[in-house]
Amino acid sequence: MSTSSEPDLDAVIGERRQLTNLAYRMLGSVAEAEDAVQETYARWYAMSPEQRDAIASPGAWLTTVASRVCLDVLGSARVRRERYVGEWIPEPLPDRSEWVGGRADGGGEPADPADRVTLDESVNMAFLVVLESMTPAERVAFILHDVFRYPFAEVAKIVGRSAPACRQLAASARRRLRDARAEAGPAAGQAVLVREFKDAWEAKDIGALIGLLDPEAAMITDGGGLAGAALRPVEGAERVAQYLAHFADRVPGLLLLERTVNGRPGLVAQHAGVTVTVAAFGLAGDRVHRIWAVRNPEKLRPWPGHGGSGAASQSWGG
Asked: Is the distance from CB of 89 to CB of 129 less than 8 angstroms?
């Protein structure tokens, strides 16, 4: 390859992080996002040099292809998730300083910085869970326009619908977010509440836990059939508190750590040095309204000490 083409190659490779950020928000899965980005680059390099040279904006081309790949994945993912064992929760992300190789063959090595997702309010767990309730077209249109600021005229070309239709899709997505109360409050306030919650959980103080939980609180656990988890949400402050205390009784030596989960204060549970659960929190005022606890070891690969086996990984049933 000639030296004159190198800047164009650098520009194409430089889009990788943007594409990873886009795909994770669209799919809620690190592994699926990586596959979508890989497929996008495979299509780019499958073209002849003349075809690539004819593309005026490689970045726009890559974004269009990645978005369409994600649309296809979202369509098939709805079918796959209907067959998923128990509840499906988006993959939780650690703080950038703690992220390790996300792939099974990563060997625990630090991840390439280009693979890391930027942690902002568009990846907090409450936000991602609502995205899961959207149609594929709603989700893609909303993320492209409201998160990545693409004009509706460009969104329309990517989604294959008219600009007014894409505007309606994004508006519908916003209504879902408002109805679900997915807006996040100040991180400092959440950190204090999560710390109090951790202390009460470690003390197995059911009364204190109930006091920190919204009366209509719910806990959703995701084991994917690979780790013990409640197959349905545990609902109501008292039931959630009893459930947590019961788990602490069954897993002696459980270590709870305050960690950033998808950019917000959360908790990580380790047993014998292995990360067995990552919990994200959604608040309603000054109380915990939702707990999303991911236990599926395949979704914990970016976390230090990822994985899980033995008693801790099998005893969180419900």
From this structure: yes
Answer whether 231's CB lies under 8 Å from 300's CB: no
* Amino acid in the structure at residue 108: G
The SS3 assignment for 96 reads coil
| Burial category of 282 from C-beta neighbours within 10 Å (exposed 0-12, middle 13-18, buried 19 and up) | buried
Convert the pLDDT of each residue in 18-45 to its tens digit. 999 999 999 999 889 999 999 999 999 9
The angle formed by the CA atoms of residues 169, 171 and 172, to the nearest 5 degrees, is 65
d(CA 304, CA 297): 12
Rounded to a whole number of angstroms, the distance between the first and last alpha carbons of the chain is 59
Report the predicted TM-score, pTM, of the whole model to 2 decimal places.
0.86
What is the tens place of the pLDDT at every residue in 74-91? 988 877 888 899 999 999
What's the CA gap between 264 and 249, in Å, rounded? 27
Residue keyed to tokens 């079918």: 79
User: Confidence band (pLDDT; 50, 70, 90) for 299?
Assistant: very high
Alpha-carbon distance 211 to 195, whole Å? 14
Summary mean pLDDT of the chain = 86
Q: Which amino acid, 29?
A: S
**Would you say 152 and 208 are in contact if contact means Cβ atoms under 8 Å apart?**
no
Task: Kindly provide the b/e burial profile for residues 215-247, where b requires at least 16 CB atoms within 10 angstroms of the residue's own CB.
Answer: eebbbbbbbbebbbbbeebbebbebbbebbbeb
- 218 strand-pairing partners: 235, 290
How much is the pLDDT for 184? Answer: 63
Q: Are 190 and 264 in contact (CB under 8 A)?
A: yes
> How far is CA 273 from its chain centroid?
23
Using CA atoms, how far residue 241 sits from 46, 212, 269, in Å, is 54, 9, 16
The DSSP result for 280-300, as a single string, is EEEEETTEEEEEEEE--GGG-
| 3-state secondary structure at position 76 | helix
| pLDDT computed for residue 1 by the predictor | 41
CA 276 to CA 214: how far, in whole Å?
Answer: 25
